[in-house]
Amino acid sequence: MQSAEKHTLFEDAQGFVFGTAMCAFAIVMLRDLGLITGQTAGLSLLISYLLSAPFGWVFFAVNLPFYWFGYRRMGLKFVLKTFACVALLSVFSELFPHLVSFERLDPAFGAIMLGFFQGAGLMAIFRHGGSLGGIGILALYLQDATKFRAGYVQLAFDAALFAVAAFLLPLDQVAWSLLGAVVLNLVIAINHRRDRYIAM
């Protein structure tokens, strides 16, 4: 198989702007509906609800401890790309609510669409060698250190996060949040295939 051509700096930049913008729009929908999602973004949303704090600042702060794991596991280039993506999402998620609002957003429709938006955004970020940091980085680090599968670490974290959310949020909001998380994970599972898509 012919090796894939590397992305240019400009291509990486547009991929990160596109990906973080899609994820930030999903965050606007999540906050409008009072929902959460999985991983670090979900934890940051829950904290922002409890403290009435801006999501962007919380998300940026929550990710800070994970860069060391990213550096140890995947090197400086990955950490710099991830830092850029986290910073962009933090800024966009605070900017976008001033540019768009929803007069009516059905919870079922919103949960499905935000799952699609997040999935598309993350796919773009992954294809250009970045991430949104957090639990995914820690999971890969623990997999190397303990041989415990990264997917199980992420699943356990999300299960704990949604269990806590069930005590803090109305159960219907938790149910719609789960729908959005399922849609997101299906998009990633079906489309993020290194055997089919090898460009990095």
TrEMBL record:
Q: Where in the cell is it found?
A: Cell membrane
Q: What are the alphabetically sorted keywords of the record?
A: Cell membrane, Membrane, Transmembrane, Transmembrane helix
Q: Which GO terms describe its cellular component?
A: plasma membrane
Q: Which InterPro entries does the entry mention?
A: UPF0750_membrane, YitT
What is its membrane topology?
A: Multi-pass membrane protein
Q: Sorted alphabetically, which Pfam families does this protein's record hold?
A: YitT_membrane
TM helices/strands, residue ranges: 12-30, 42-66, 78-96, 108-129, 150-168, 174-191
Alphabetized PANTHER family for the sequence? UPF0750 MEMBRANE PROTEIN YITT (PTHR33545:SF5), UPF0750 MEMBRANE PROTEIN YITT-RELATED (PTHR33545)
Protein known as: YitT family protein
This protein's species is Celeribacter indicus
